[in-house]
Specification:
Length: about 160
């Protein structure tokens, strides 16, 4: 779970998704609404399998097929409500792109851990570089790959007494 707090938005994710679907000639079905509510129930990074698992654990009887989840995730991404942030282990990991502050990521290549951070000096540096090049920034996305603190720790050697 991230330490970042959600940003107040005037329109709910369900309403934004309904508006997007209308522009595509589609409607917000009960299944799509269930998916949007589950996705925006908490801010955590997730992949499609984790979302399917969470939806299957619901006790309200609202079931959604795996294929509907995959299609809805693509639509949520196209609508600007979600974005894919990383691809550890060949799986797409998503996060909210609506109602959440601008932030960047540190991604551990060993364990796949995602660390969110905000650094104003980074924004200042990007603004300075953009100004030097006559470039207007509309958004940025930074993903830094490496090893997290846990993975950098030296591995404990197994002693003969541990094997007894």
């Amino acid at each position: 779970m991230s330490d970042l707090t959600a940003v107040d938005v005037a329109v709910s994710p369900e309403t934004k998704f309904r508006e997007y679907l209308m522009t595509q000639g589609m409607r917000l079905t009960t299944e799509r609404e269930t998916i949007v509510r589950e996705v925006f129930a908490s801010h955590e990074h997730f992949d499609a399998d984790q979302l399917v698992s969470r939806l299957n654990q619901r006790t309200d009887g609202k079931r959604v097929s795996r294929s509907t989840v995959y299609r809805a995730l693509a639509q949520l991404k196209d609508s600007g409500l979600l974005r894919a942030v990383a691809r550890p282990n060949d799986r797409e990991v998503y996060e909210h792109d609506y109602g959440y502050p601008q932030h960047d990521h540190l991604i551990c290549k060993e364990c796949g851990d995602l660390i969110e951070f905000v650094d104003d000096s980074l924004n200042e540096m990007l603004s300075r570089v953009a100004a030097q090049n006559g470039f207007r920034i509309s958004a940025h996305r930074l993903e830094v790959y490496g090893k997290c603190a846990n993975c950098c720790r030296p591995k404990r050697r197994q002693r003969k007494t541990d094997m007894i």
